[in-house]
Design a protein that fits this description.
Helix content: 10-25%
CATH topology: 2,3-Dihydroxybiphenyl 1,2-Dioxygenase, domain 1
Number of strands: 8
Low-confidence stretches: none
Strand order of the largest sheet: 1-4-3-2
Distance between the termini: 22 Å
Structural class: alpha/beta
CATH superfamily: 2,3-Dihydroxybiphenyl 1,2-Dioxygenase, domain 1
Oligomer: single chain
Length: about 120
């Protein structure tokens, strides 16, 4: 359905370091590198990160989060570890989420700007 998603951040360099590390285990890399915007994806940019003076304020109760595809459980585990090492906060360790399905393996983190991210594998 979506071609891409854009988020605004307060410090694009800090956020870039986080996403470079967190997305690498999922096979996504920085494909566009500008002073005020970065683009991530595999074959094309699917996530744009832009510097803004008014990023959306983090709200844990809003329900807003971004779910990223992972090829296997090891990639979900590596995403979680890399995100925490790069300054993210844990929001759910890797594991099966039986409430979502018998094979729903996911991990959840919060990026430096408060955006909630999930890596998911359904195998």
């Amino acid at each position: 359905m979506f071609d891409h998603v854009s988020i605004g951040v307060s410090d694009v360099k800090r956020t870039g370091r986080f996403y470079d590390a967190a997305l690498k285990p999922l096979g996504f890399t920085r494909l566009s590198d500008g002073e005020s915007s970065l683009g991530y994806g595999d074959k094309g940019v699917q996530l744009w990160i832009s510097a803004t003076s008014k990023p959306v304020k983090a709200d844990m109760e809003s329900g807003l989060h971004f779910c990223l595809s992972a090829k296997d459980h090891a990639a979900v585990d590596a995403f979680h570890a890399a995100a925490l090492k790069a300054g993210g906060k844990d929001n759910g360790k890797p594991g099966i989420r039986k409430d979502y399905g018998a094979n729903y393996y996911a991990a959840f983190v919060i990026d430096p700007d408060g955006y909630r991210l999930e890596a998911y594998c359904g195998k």
